[in-house]
Design a protein that fits this description.
single chain, mainly alpha, two-stranded parallel sheet, two-stranded parallel ribbon, 4 helices, about 10% strand, globular
Length: about 90
């Protein structure tokens, strides 16, 4: 999946589809190091990716999540589901 600088309601549908395609192709790690802007749509996209991967019998992980997105996952109470490893919270 190519780098994007935001994951918001404006590009959520397109990003969702690209991620689902990447999961089908075997991608298991999604790097959010280039993301500067997020909103609640990002949480919905991550949840959909995680569910799709599990349905396909795979586990995916998210790395270099921006603090704003980590806060949103916590706010919505899905951080334990989405951020299954402390390494996923690492920033560079």
């Amino acid at each position: 999946m190519h780098s994007i600088d935001s994951l918001t309601v404006e590009n959520a549908t397109a990003t969702l589809e690209r991620g689902l395609d990447a999961i089908k192709e075997g991608q298991t790690v999604f790097d959010f190091g280039t993301i500067k802007s997020t909103d609640s749509a990002a949480v919905a996209v991550l949840l959909a990716w995680k569910r799709a991967a599990r349905k396909a019998g795979a586990e995916i992980s998210f790395i270099n999540m921006p603090p704003s997105l980590v806060k949103l996952t916590s706010l919505y109470g899905v951080d334990d589901f989405l951020l299954d490893s402390p390494a996923n919270l690492h920033h560079h």
